[in-house]
Amino acid sequence: MTTSPTVVARETYHAVIGMEVHAQLQTVSKMFCSCSADYWEAAPNSHVCPVCLAMPGVLPVINEAAVEQTVRTGLALNCQIAPFSVFARKNYSYPDLPKGYQISQYELPLCHDGWLMIDGDDNQPRRIGIRRAHLEEDTGKTIHVDGVSLVDLNRAGVPLLEIVTESDLRSADEAYRYLVKLRTILRYLGVNSGDMEKGAMRCEVNLSLRTAEQATRGEYGVKVEVKNLNSFKAVRDSIAYEVARQTVVLDSGGSVQQVTMGWDEDRRRTVLQRSKESSEDYRYFPEPDLPPLELSSEWIEAVRTTLPELPDARIARFTGNYGISRQDAEVLTAERGIAEWFEEAVRAYEGSPREVANWVTGELFALLNTQEGDITALDLSPDDLAALLALVDAGVINRNTGKRVLAEMVSTGQPPQAIIDAQGLAQVSDEAGLAAVVDAVLAANPDAVAKYRDGKTSLLGWFMGQVMKETRGKANPDVVRGLLAKRLNTQE
Questions:
Q1: Euclidean distance between CA atoms 19 and 208, whole angstroms
Q2: How much is the average pLDDT of 300-322?
Q3: Which of 41, 65, 233, 345 has the smallest C-beta neighbourhood within 10 Å, fewest atoms?
Q4: Cα dihedral 50, 52, 55, 57 in deg (nearest 10)
């Protein structure tokens, strides 16, 4: 639980929040050399070469795949794509930065002036401006062990896409929803894994508070940056804490300082890291070893044709064409693989798409949660799910037995009919045989029968359960219900 400062506000403050997201691009090689970009779990300093080690006399070469992935992302975020952009040197000194500078972009980024729609705190659509999305190279990694610092440069030079919003977010929850939406889009595009635990997606928050009067005058408060945010929950918690902290400072007559804070997960609070550098501290200037990046409109439009159907468009289509609820559509489109799997099942099934949605979001997802699995990795095809639903529709098995069969399908990978045949699960619909079971249940429970006939009709469900128990769940519930109603409503 986040421990926030006690707040008794004398003034109403409004948060103004911007975000920077660094997303590692899923390219085969690094940004400016041919070294493998797949550094995770590799032996330290095994994916390096003279370029990423900054040896004298070597020259960088732009990775075209990284440029294409950046343009795809920019188009998905409704950005303007610059036909002319420039790489720049960002100068600073750190042990895991072998060149003493980072190749990035500054005044002329590849993508700019975009936007992303999210649900605001008032449940109304909110447009979050994307100021820029630019390419740069990642740094190495410093590992502190037993009082010494070790540097692994496998990550140095991995393509990194930095996405910077305008200061349009107004709460911790909006920031959280923005990140979820952004990660979903990046994963749909196949440009980023979204795995924050591995550092594939890293976040920084810029936050200030202002009064309503300041907002009217177009003024802003002093901005504080928060780093070390390794999960979406950490982003939400750190914003909530920082809003509370700054409120206490302002209400006590103090002033907020422009600093960089870190998020301490163990102490559940922000901690001071350093005074904030201004952009001039980095001494940006155009990268002399790389030419300007010039993109033709024809090439940009060719990249646009590779965009998949994005989540918002897919949600609209699922609700419009399939008649499913928006909530189910949002769940089904959260991952591209899930959405495509669902649609394959819909195409294979002759019944209502809503029935497929109910089984996927209900029974199948419940099974996946217990097994911590991924629907696309299951040995369960969309055709097999459609076959199971058809067997339920045809009365071969009832719905409860269908759930049992589905669990067996997920566990063994067998098709539904094979499981039904092997375990003798076919539904019993023979009225004469079921009538004997119903009569036996009623004869064994005369008190319950009397209560039902005295007006306690809710006992019908209990009688159903007893018959199902006797038939090991194989009785056709519609036939049983009819037999019970006929006998219970007939006075002997």
A1: 12
A2: 98
A3: 41
A4: 80
CA distances from 317 to 80, 116, 177, 268, 314 (A): 26, 19, 21, 41, 5
Report yes or no on whether pTM surpasses 0.70.
Answer: yes
CB 79 within 8 A of CB 39: no
Most confident segment among 44-48, 366-370, 373-377: 44-48
In CATH terms, the fold of domain 431-488 is: Arc Repressor Mutant, subunit A (1.10.10)
Alpha-carbon distance of 404 to 15, in angstroms, equals: 50
Long-range contact pairs involving 443-449 (C-beta distance under 8 Å, separation at least 24): 449/488
- Closest by CA to 116, choosing from 45, 16, 184, 68, is 184
pLDDT tens figures, 27-81 = 999 999 999 999 999 999 999 999 999 999 999 999 999 999 999 999 999 999 9
The domains of the chain are located at: 13-302, 311-415, 431-488
Q: Is the pLDDT of residue 8 over 60?
A: no
> Largest Cα–Cα distance in the chain?
103
Cα 100 to Cα 89: distance, rounded to the nearest angstrom: 10
Amino acid at 487: R
